[in-house]
Give the backbone structure.
Amino acid sequence: MNEAYRLCHTYLTHLPKTTRYTLGTKIDNLFTDCLELALLASYQSKIQKMSTVEELNAKFDALKFFIQVLWDAKAIDTNKITRLSVHLTEIGKMVGGWIKHLQR
């Protein structure tokens, strides 16, 4: 997740100012929230962990949505979104696997 954040942060710093301080800030905040929730969940008991991982999943879905909005607004080019999508897909699989593991 850290590598995806670094890549995303690099892209966000090159956005036009109007986008950087609206969508860029929202995306950056969601990404750091996801990192915090993943860290928090890793230290919690199994009972507490499920709700935290579900919250992580919801925040991660919101993050992907706002990145899509950024691309739809043509604030980020297709090559960058493609590189970022590879990482986001892998993170999504990991979060989904974590949820499935906890449900067993």
